[in-house]
Structures are given as structure tokens and as C-alpha cells.
Amino acid sequence: MRGRPRGSVRKTAMSAAQDAIQDATSEVACDVLVIGGGTAGPMAALKAKLRNPAARVILLEKANVKRSGAISMGMDGLNNAVIPGYATPEQYTKEITIANDGICDQAPVYKYAENCFEIIQELDRFGIRFQRDGNGDYDVKKVHHLGTYVLPMPNGDTVKKALYRQLRKAQVLISNRFMATRLLNAPDGAVAGAVAVNTRTAEFLVIRAKAVILCLGAAGRLGLPHSGYLWGTYENAANSGDGYSMAYHAGAGLANLECFQINPLIKDYNGPACAYVAGPFGAYTANSEGNRFIECDYWSGQMMQEFYNELSSGKGPVFLKLDHLHADTVSEIETILHKVERPSRGRFHENRGTDYRHRMVEMHISEVGFCSGHSASGVFVDEFARTTVPGLYSAGDMANVPHNYMLGAFTNGAVAGEHAIDHASAIDLPEIDAEAVARERERVLAPTRRADGIPPNQIEYKTRRFVNDYLQPPKVTAKMEIGQRRFAEIREDLETRMVARDSHELMRALEASSILDCAEMAAHASLYRTESRWGLYHNRTDCPEKNDAEWFCHTILRKVEGRMVSEKRPITPYIVPIEADERGAYDRQRVRKQA
Questions:
Q1: EC number(s) of the enzyme (predicted)?
Q2: Is it the case that residue 590 has pLDDT exceeding 90?
Q3: In degrees rounded to 5, what are phi and psi of residue 224?
Q4: Which one, 78, 276, 546, 572, has the greatest CB density within 10 A?
């Protein structure tokens, strides 16, 4: 029998040695700790350091900041650029409020809209180019239902590199390969730092901090893709809901977790169909007859409801239609879609024999997740990115400012960084609870102390499969209640039987724990809001109607004395008024038959 090549044996042995669990703990202190090295986190750390160069700012990332986060390969454009001459902060705030079914505290949205143009100009100075017209002005495209906000990025693949250069220039302290597991609270409940574990060695790091900024992205590994592949997700697969979990266990309020993220994607490919990008060139979403059935391809719950209705009808499947466009136009679209955000997209179409010029691209519906970038579910924050826990901030896809996208992560990350450093300069370093650190160490290492058991990938698969079975919209009360019981059974397995044999598997075990936390929160929040809201995102078949009298509010979920509880929080009075006849604009997207 042929044996394994010697080189492979050596490589396997080296990998095992790299991932061996080491028993060590160290402690550091800083003014501001930023957790998450994707989009919002680096900008938050950079702004904090630039505002107070003498301060100690640490950026913590479980991978490597050079290529981490949802923008690791770049981005094809800004989806929500509020540029003078094209839009005003008032117009944008109105658009997002209407798109989010009115459940919106406008102050953080308006603050974003006021500040984002300055961030665009700053990114421009970093060397990130944005498309301009013949007059040298920003070439903004219309995709949204009401306004014009989309700005293409010809060299969007350079975003991460440009951002990293700025971090090094500002001498921000970067700790790669450390995964934060829990936040630490001071005796008065304020944040006091975090516990982290090295993803290569399992060494522990206790970080004391005056302020902490959570920027860990979406809960992208919540539902299971139709492929069954754990990492074949619409969102960045590294985003496993760690930030949602940490905020919850620290006592922070999380808002609107029943508002799931669901997106149109290419069938059998873990990425967006990008009608959003191709739309300005004349592409659109069509049914199997080649007919357009929605007027606007901007993401909203109601758009996804229409997509679902068409997909389920006799006119499904649904497609991205480009075959009516000129070949040169299609080539331009291919340049954008195949060379920046997901370069594998072109290879996928080539292997499948799909040419945009001759065939429509089959689309489908993504797995569910939490993400404010495309919906509104996240840690509750105000216009300064402050959570409900003193000293704790959040920005990016995990903070509940609706329809954030990449520019929102940059802008709100900047807001968080500047406010957090000011907060830190006014207080002393909080005390931490040594017993809490010891308990966390025991929780984290428990899977490593079992000789045998269930590996993390099986725990994760079962959790996410049950998310599909019991929480996927349209939602049914009885199914969600069964889901809660199944999650409780998985919790028992996770806490008593899950095994991790090396530090890499330990990281997967910690991610499985975060995913299960998010699944339980998704079920709890979905049962609490007893009405349908946000189109498909929270379509409850047994509570089909909107009920503004009872439910025109945020739902806030939090941990109280070890239990998960939900409550209502009133919508803060609007800054930008919304007229009664405007509120339903996103409900009228279906193309009407011509008389």
C-alpha cells in the first residue's frame, strides 16, 4: 500500500506543533481596545490614535489585519455615499427610515450622513480611487428607490492595503491571531477590558482598557447555505457572531434581532448576484419569462418578499438579466464584478458555462444572518456609537445603525474611535474581576480537557441546520418554539461533550458557542415581536399584519441575571419628518401590469 509522502508527514507534524495548546497567560493595559480588524475596527483605532497620539490604542484581530474582515479582497463601490450635489443628509435619513419600515432612530443615521463625505475624501487621500465623470466630479449612480448614493471604486482591491498603511504610520498597536472571548465588567457595570485567546497557541491574554470598541462584523455563519458547506456563506465566513455574543454576555442591549439579513445571491455560489452593481448599467432582476417584476433592486425586506414570492410562483426561478445589454457594457460589468470583491465569481460562471451576454444568471435567496449592513439587527448604539454599557462602543455591521455598508463602517468607526478616546482620557483604568477571568479561562479550555467527544464542526452544523429548519422565514410560532428546545439540547452537548484537540479547533469551538448564542437570540427575538415587519425578514405567518399601535418600536434583547429577556424601546422622535404617504414607498416596488 502506498504511504503518505514524507513531505506531507513533516508538514502535518509541523502544523500540529503550531496548533499545540500552551498554558500561559499575560496581561496588558491600554486606553482604548478595538476588537475586530476588518473595516470599522481599523478606522476606529486610527482615529483614536490620531486624536491622542500619546494614548495606548490596541487593535485586536483573530486573523491578520492585513487581510481580515469582509473587505479582505476589496470592494466594488460605496453603496451609501451622501455626496453634496447629489444628496443631502435629510434625504438620505428619510430614505433609510422608509427602507427600514420606520423602525429607526434617526440620530445615528443623520450623523453618518453628515460625516461620510469627509471620510470619502480621506479615503481618496489614502489612495483609494472613486469613479469620476468627464467633469472630474464623483460619478454617483442611482440604485436606491428614492435617492442617488452609489459610488463605484475602480481600484477597490486596494482598500485593505491602504488602510493598513495608515495604521502602521500612526503606530497603532496591532495584536493579530488573538480572538476575544468575553468582555470584562468593572464593579459598577462599565466595561473594563476583555479576555482573548491566541488562535495558534491558545495562550491567554487579559487586556485592561478604559474603553472598548466592538467591530466584529455580521453574524454571517448563522443559517446554513443550501450547499451545506459551513464556510460557503454570503457574508464573510470568519464573522461568526462573536461580537453579538460578547455584547450580550456583557449586558449590552441588542436591537431588532428578529430583523434577519436575507439577500439575493447567485445560485450555488457564495456571493451576491450584484443586481445592485449591474443595475446602473441596465441590468435588472427578472423572472423565468425574462420580465422585470420589481422596480428597484435596492435591498430591503419588502424587496426580498417580492423576490421570495416570485421564486415560489410559477414564474420562478429568478434571474439577473444582462443578456439584453451591449457586449461592451457586459465587459465593463465583468471587470467590476470579477476582479475585486470575489475574483472566484468569473471562474464559477466559466465552469458552469454561463456567459452574461447569452444567458441570464440564476439567483436564489441566501441563508439568514444578523447584519445592520443590509438590515437593522445589531448592538443598540446612539449617534456616538455608545452602547448601553458605559465605556463600550460598537460600529460596523454589528451595530444597529441600519443599512450601514462599508462606508457606514468606516464613518461610524471613526465616530466611535474619537468619542472613545475622549471618554478614556477622562477616567482611570477600571478594576477587573480576577474571578471572572478565571471562570472564563475554565469555560474556554473545557473542550480541551476531554479525551473524546463531539467536534466543533458537528455542533456548528447542527445549530445552523436547525436555524434553517425552524427560524428561516416565513416564520411560524410552533417551529420557533421547537427550535428553542433543539438549541437547548445543543447547548447541553456544547457545554459537556464538545472536544477541541488543538488551538485551531479551540477557535472553532469558541465560534460554535457564539453561533449558538446568536441562534438562541434570533429565536427569542422573533417570538417576542408578534407582528410581521420588514417584508420577508420578519414575516410571521401567524401574525401577518403590521401593528404600529403595539409594535412601532425597537425590541431590545439583553442578559439579566443570567436570563435572556426582551423589552420594547420607543423610537426616538424623528429629526427628519416622514409623511404618512411616504412611509409605504418601499411597499410599492412590484412592477404593475400595463393596462
A1: 1.3.99.1
A2: no
A3: -105, 130
A4: 78
